[in-house]
Every structure is written in C-alpha cells, then in structure tokens.
Amino acid sequence: MELLYASCVGVLVFCGVFLILRARTFPVVVGLTMLSYAVNLFLFSSGRLSLNKAAVLGQSLEYADPLPQALVLTAIVIGFAMTAFLVILAIRGRVDLGSDHVDGQLPDKNTEKNKENNNKVKT
Residue 39 contacts by C-beta under 8 Å, 6 or more apart in sequence? Predict the structure, then answer.
C-alpha cells in the first residue's frame, strides 16, 4: 500500500515538474496544480495510512489523526485559490502580450533558420 502511494506521489511530482518546464502558460498552471496535489497526498500520508479507523473521537477505540486531514483541507482551499489566480494571470498575459509563451515572445523561425544557415556556411 505504501509503495503504491509513494509511487503515485512520485508520478505526480514528475509530471508537475515536467509541465512547469514547458514554454506555454497553460501547462505551467496544470503542472503547479499537479504539484499541489502531490503535496496534498504527502501531507495526508504524514498521518500514517490506516484502514477502518474512525475519523471522529469517541466512535471507536482506534481513530485516525485529524491534523493531516485538516492540513489537506486547508491546502486544497489554498491550491484552488492559487490556481484561479494563475489562470487569471495567464489570461491577462495572453491579452496584454498577444501570446501565451512564458517569456512573452514567440520564437522567431527566421532567426533559427539564419543560425542554421550560418553554421552550415562556417563548416
């Protein structure tokens, strides 16, 4: 169970970092969201994974730790607000700059072709 859980967190972190390194703003937003999901799973696992335990005191002899659950709930709310802010920021950047690239500039294909031609001429 722990290996599967750790693997899921690792895959989410990998995909989040991969998407953050993209050149467009939407994959960056999705990557940050995936990273926040990975952090939520990590926080939830800090309360130890257990099955068939009551979430409320007094209902059973064994109960789950409520602190990680409260931390994850708070992190979900903060993550939702952060995602909404980033989406609005990306839309505003698209309107102001005219492109959705992270640096605000489209790669100039003519410049890339000129560099390739210059390299061919030199060799």
Answer: 75
Structural domains of the chain sorted by starting position, each given as residue range(s) with its CATH number in brackets: 2-122 (1.10.287)
Cα distance between residue 49 and residue 39, in whole Å? 15
Helices (H) and strands (E) in the chain, counts: 4, 0
pLDDT tens for each residue of 103-113: 766 666 665 56
DSSP symbols for 60-112 = SSSB--HHHHHHHHHHHHHHHHHHHHHHHHHHHHHHHHSS-BTTS----HHHH
Tens of pLDDT, residues 89-98: 889 988 888 8
Residue 54's DSSP bridge partners are: 63
- Tell me if 12 sits within 8 A of 4, measured CB to CB: no
